[in-house]
Amino acid sequence: MLKGFVFLFHNLLIRFLLHSQASHILDCTPRKTVNYEDANLKIFAEQGISNYSTLLLSEEHDLLLVGARDAIFALNIENISDCVSQEMWPVSEQKQKECMYKGKSQETDCRNYIRILHWLSKTRMYVCGTNAFQPTCDNLVINNGKIQLEKNPEESKGQCPFDPTQKYASVMVDGEFYSATANNFLGSEPILLRSLKNNLRTEYKTSWLNEPNFIYLDVIQESKDATDGDDDKIYLFFSETAVEFEFYNKLLVSRIARVCKGDLGGQRTLQRKWTTFLKASLMCSAPEINFPFNIIQDVFVLRATNWRNNIFYAVFTPQWGKQDMSAVCAFGMSKIQEVFNAGKFKSPITVEQSRVKWVMYSGTVPVPRPGACINSNIRQSGFKTSLDLPDKTLQFVRDHPLMDDLVTPINNRPKLIKQGVKYTQIVVDRVTAANLKEYDVIFLGTDSGYLHKALSLEREMFIIEEVQLFLSAEPVQNLQLSSKRGQLYVGSPSVVAQVPVAICTQYIDCWDCVLSRDPYCGWDKMTSQCVYISKKNIDIQNLVQNIENGDPSKCPSHEMYKAEKQIIIPGNNMVLNCYPASNLAQMQWLHKRRAIPAVDSRYFHFNVGLIIFNVSAEDEGQYDCLSVETVAGKLLSQVTASYFLYSSTYKSRVDQHPVPTKTDLGAKSAGVPTSPGNTVRRGNLPMIQNYLQTELTLKGFLVLFIMMFVLLLAWNIYKGHVPIPLRPSGNENARRAPATILNNSVQQLEEKTTLSEGPQLKGALNNVDLPLTSISDANPLEKNSNNNSVPLENANSSCARPLLVLDELEYIDADQTESKA
Ligand SMILES: *[C@@H]1O[C@H](CO)[C@@H](O)[C@H](O)[C@H]1NC(C)=O
Ligand SMILES: *[C@@H]1O[C@H](CO)[C@@H](O)[C@H](O)[C@H]1NC(C)=O
Fold first, then answer.
1. pTM of the full predicted structure?
2. Does ligand 2 lie within 6 Å of residue 494's CB atom?
3. CB contact at 8 A, 268 and 398
4. What percentage of the chain has pLDDT greater than the value 70?
């Protein structure tokens, strides 16, 4: 009998049913890729120290505190390369020996990994380390930026993990320390513990915690302006092996659990144990996707002025199938409260000998409601604290910690699904854009050292950029945001990195700046720069930004691309360079305003340009490279490069049939979201009479050119360099590089690029009334980071069109009513 969710392995295919309504759930290609060198990073790493995985921001002291292996650092929050002070906390020889006797490795296990850093007061912190599998805590005082251990270590079983590889979670709430970790050397006994004051712990039962991976702990101050005298609650996020599904393999589920801050445990039943521990399953899936992202990886609480509007953002990955897939879901407070405060419980029943089955509990639930915090109502009934609660209520909550209802995400679907990436960390910033509206910008750390910046809008979510954080492909282990400073802090095995929330200078023109739809960036018309918008400098009058539609029509038109003049040397091959404005842009080449076909033996389209084979006088004229990009469902294009090719017989013919040149097609269309057709067709282009002043100039130029070419060729042959390398360096200066003359080395290129047609874009272009016959393949993904395996058709439309190919398993949502029977 199948209950709840059933996985079938025999069918090694998963089908995504891609309804058009599901268009905001898709695979998003980051619009821009920022490499390590351009990322404006500040780095901290100390010789001989590793595992910088614990971070604590102190805006008050202007410090970033970092817990590493055997050491704690206080770094300047403005510039983490500047280490203010440090405190070493190595393992004693005695402890190290004991650790090794127990079969652990001296070099990796028997060290002190700092895992806990929390404020106790304004100048004191609680700090714990694994201390060679003998977890120990101490106090750390801070004085004028100097950190110092009080050197009063205490054994801290249940507060800090034994094993540095095990996941854990902790939070300090009003001097009470909540920790979720393993309580024994073997790591087999999980615990949610409150210590320092009013110690309380979980029952050691698989129905409470079953091989959990603890992810996140935090407090929500729900007592604040509560009319019913409700209590603050501590929420725990984790994944664990499901007890409620019958399955021959271990099925993991993600959970949200909560306890009440005022819990004091029971009098007889649940003595010094939580009387309010309840948990529910977290769903991150969509009805039409039928694919479970069942393992939670990280959580961020986006706090609103009113806690009822708080949002828990969480990252999930699947247990099976493609490991390199991730989803982001957002959970609202109201749904969570509904499930815990009014939801049904699950109950174990024994069937067929000793098999236990969990079904919805339909009997009477004792009063006061099991797991409820003590509020005014319960207090009025004579139960002042949890110590007064009746045994019936306590026994029920001990045996029924799991809710039957699921906590489903906002809008019942993931905000984002990303293929080819495993997200490990998430933070969210609520940003006020130039239109004074607020947007949630989501920062995601990957397991290979990238940071993705995504924007969540009502109808769509897209990835603004990816930033390479480390030189080696290390996982992002910790991500902290200083919203006030506009900085992110990243912990990893070998370094700490600091990266600004936005790199607006990467957007080279107004068009690029506006199309990015980056709420932090706007085009300043006064300075002609893409600038970082901080609350101080918002000057809406002079700023162009359009988050919802990415509409660049407000961009000033300005002289942009001058056509590069190139002489034709008959019989040669010519390369015209053109760099796509973004990873999502495709290139379309026009020759004398007519589209150059993608498949034509005379031309070859490659990722950063066009090759014309065996040029002749017929190839004369204007060449324009359009960068075409779909933004918010609209197709936008602009000229990003122009060339004018002429042959030696040009002058004589110009006198008879004037040919347009030098005119800047790009200047007219730059930043204007009109169809390329309109732009290019517009008006009579001025005739150029003075293009080449005299025959003399032409001849002189030609002779010089040929001489240089011959010299170059000779030198290359001499050096054995033929063919000349084709690949441009890719830097900004090379963007408008002149055409390169080739020596028949196209084969090289063919190995690197492929020809294909973009039927979708072709269709779209037809819609905007452009006389195009086909479109070139400017595969922007090729130069992209490690993780893009997305086909081009998919890339061009960013998040407007999903395309996911999965394999290995099928996921079925079985009949719910059956399980509730
Ligand atoms: C950051 O601090 C380091 C080390 O003190 C220094 O070399 C570097 O110039 C600083 N960078 C900035 C931008 O201030
Ligand atoms: C510590 O860092 C090293 C690399 O610097 C890494 O190989 C190891 O897995 C890390 N250990 C833990 C427990 O994070």
1. 0.79
2. yes
3. no
4. 73
